[in-house]
């Protein structure tokens, strides 16, 4: 899976690109939102954009919104917009009237896959990219993209809610459903 790292500070861009490669993914870089859009228009292999929030010219929010409008195609047809991870040093505890804090809130509303605070936690980034790579898996017969990322995130959120609520009955029932679905997948794989 290819990740486009976007940051207008050169050493940060280089550092996060190397981190993405260390984790096991392919990285390409852009030093501005404008350059990132050009790459997205030419390279339909970019599946994830890891972008800084605060950049001169076009910030991470503007880049996200413009990237949703970029038409991307492959031999199989239309390619979906990439998933976005927003990285920022802006902390929401700051003055809520601060423009960057407002932009951070907007990012949550717009549909960024993840908001991560700098310095990025390597394990958290690896987990997020591993999860996102599930969305890139193609069916070998039909070459249709399968969205495995969204359901995986919903399962994780459900588990966190059950644990947070300390509901052992719900945990037991949820586990039973998961084990049943795992058995269904195993049976499917045996017949393939």
Short description:
With 192 residues, the protein is of the alpha/beta class.
Distance between the termini: 26 Å
Element pattern in H and E: EHEHEHEEEHEHHH
CATH superfamily of the largest domain: Response regulator
- Report strand %: 15-25%
How many β-strand runs?
A: 7
Instruction: Please state the overall shape, judged from the principal axes of the Cα atoms.
Output: globular
Poorly predicted runs: 138-144
Q: How confident is the prediction overall: mean pLDDT?
A: 86
Continuous helix count:
7
Overall radius of gyration: 19 Å
Structurally, the number of domains stands at 2
Strand order in space, largest sheet: 2-1-3-6-7
In CATH, what is the class of the largest domain?
Answer: Alpha Beta
**Class by alpha and beta content:** alpha/beta
Helix proportion range: 40-55%
Please outline the major beta sheet.
5 strands, parallel
Quote the CATH topology of the largest domain.
Rossmann fold
Task: Please name the CATH architecture of the largest domain.
Answer: 3-Layer(aba) Sandwich
Write the layout of secondary structure elements.
Layout (H helix, E strand, L loop, with lengths): L1 E5 L3 H14 L2 E5 L2 H10 L3 E7 L7 H8 L4 E3 L2 E3 L3 E6 L10 H12 L3 E4 L4 H12 L15 H17 L2 H24 L1
Parallel strand pairs: 1-2, 1-3, 3-6, 6-7
Antiparallel strand pairs: 4-5
